[in-house]
Amino acid sequence: MINLIDRPYGQKYNPKETTTRFASGVTGGNKMTIQQISSFAAGEWIAPGAGARNIASAITGDVIASAGNNDLDVQGMLDYARNVGGPALRKMTFHERAKMLKAVAAYLGKHKQAMYDLSFETGATQNDHLIDIDGGIGTMFVFASKGRREMPDGHVYLDGDVEQLSRNGTFLGQHICTPLQGVAVHINAFNFPVWGMLEKVAPTLLAGVPCIVKPATNSCYVTELCVRLMLESGLLPAGAIQLVSGGLGDMLDRLGMQDVVSFTGSAQTAMKLRSNPVILENSVRFVAEQDSLNGSILGPDAQPGTPEFDLFVKEVQREMTTKAGQKCTAIRRIIAPENTVQAVIEALSARLAKTVIGDPRLETTRMGALVSNGQKRDVLEKAAIIGQEAERVFGDPDAFDVVGADAEKGAFLPPMLFHCANPDSAERVHDTEAFGPVSTIMGYRDVDHAIELANKGLGSLVASVITHDPSVARQVALGSGAYHGRLYFNNRDSMKESTGHGSPLPHMVHGGPGRAGGGEELGGVRGVTHYMQRTAIQGSPDILSAIGEKWVPGATEIKADAHPFTRRYGELAIGETMHTAARTVTLDDIEHFANFTGDTFYAHMDDAAAERNPFFPGRVAHGYLLLSFAAGLFVEPNEGPVLANTGLDNLRFMKPVSAGDSIKVRLSVKKKTQRNDEYGEVRWHVTLTNQDDELVAEYELLTMNAY
Questions:
Q1: Any domain includes 511
Q2: Is 289 annotated in the active site?
Q3: Model-wide pTM > 0.85
Q4: Neighbours of 582 (CB within 10 A)
Q5: Could you read off the pLDDT of 122-170 as tens digits, one per residue?
Q6: Tell me, what CATH number does 337's domain have?
Q7: Which of 211, 220, 226, 328 is catalytic?
Q8: Boundaries of domain holding 15
Q9: What letter would DSSP give residue 260?
């Protein structure tokens, strides 16, 4: 027999191997081996022990694995993370951690077929794998890119601008973010054993915090393989990641104020965990993503026959059947204009009827099994509760076809659509989540009523609106935005490139208020700062410059022995400053620039008109003329280490310059960031002052300098 876990990386499942099972039991007279799913604790793999529980295949119901160990040294794991993993990660810069994430993601990408092969046993189809496994790897790549592009090549993240706290600028304030010096405990759900882990791991490691991953036991064998691959890569420092396959024991009772708990699961479990006295007493950060009755609104303009109507039906069908509806972002409530409800039911039922349910390993299968028969029972129980207030109009759990598998032994269900005729008086359709292929359609009278129904879910991860009417989109955003973590709008203009209602993206916030848990994940760099402490620092410009490794105006200037543009990246010091000679601006300069560029705006050419303008004393020089003259004052013309000028940031014009005024430039090295093996980015602070030392303009110049 072939054990899928032991299959060589890259070897694909062959559907002709009809006797292949990742399970115990007897097939052809041979007893299969139950896979022992280990934990990784304090640098060692530890096999299941006392308290281990069996895990069944979602496809066959046969036992395929065993996981859990009541004797894990949880204090040893915490100490290892805090004393080994944490210091190693904090020693690295943000860019070094970002490069590490990119390399790990690339390594996982080379071995994702092994995870595909194993993940089938969770009931997931090949398309489901793309969301979970490829999506998780893609999330790591995004955070790696964010770390390189939006965070410094240093150890301190500067949050916001410098605040001047004194009249003369000798006492300033700044917010900084530094890594927490504890451990992040990630408690994940069963539905996405790879993405659910990596979307937490990526920002945590980028922040410089070690993590202990505790996947849901039902699908932990896929997570374990992913962790094995990450460790096998040799790219992570010791203690950066550990794995608990099974229960956490009393780990949460041992957490302190530098630790974080990030949880994905039911509201009931979240409440139990966040109520832990130790977590409350020590103010342990607790991030929760929990139950969510996500809604999708069909705009009143999206009548049958429009592209939006067809798009809506397609989106709902996809969200009901992807991962067999086991998605925290799936559409649970379908909110449509009353006059379209029947048309939606008919169109959606027709699409659902074409959904092939069966063995997820078969290419023809479009919806696989739920993760376990226990989950199947839970979905049926919740569907029965919904059925007290709504009529099932599609999908009979007692009569449906399953291809290539036994519907009774496997955790299979058909998609089930309910219709709630009285959504205003209903309660269960707005507070009961059947975490499977179950959705309820309800009608609304007008947009305000649709908003009211969407908000009756009391907080969700995402709500979508399918409309081509911008006014409808705005009305929903204003009326419903406070109730949802993400609002997804789609129509004929965006549908070809849209990522879908149910797809959280690493760039955007994933989380929601109220019933959804009140937490946030992802969201770009914002998600990284969840694992850092935001601290206000106050002091002199020199102090702030030293802490942030970024020159602050007013800090000590370093006089260069040579023109700064003749010095290589590594030779430039933060605060190195050049002062130029002055240049007088003449009326001929202004008129020549106007005629040469075509910028004959009246403030530059008509003295009387300019005098009537409240901003100008009369004719003034163009702002871009001043920038050009400034460049002429500080540029070194000869070939040297400055390779390119890549842009200007934060340009401001403070005081107009008239003919006869003069300008001079101060050019200071503000910040340096390595970009590749050949060159790095130098950020220069540039000020233009006039003959009275008054500030005329200020900006940041970006150049790429050779090493």
A1: no
A2: yes
A3: yes
A4: 13
A5: 999 999 999 999 999 999 999 999 999 999 999 999 999 999 999 999 9
A6: 3.40.309.10
A7: 328
A8: 4-289
A9: E
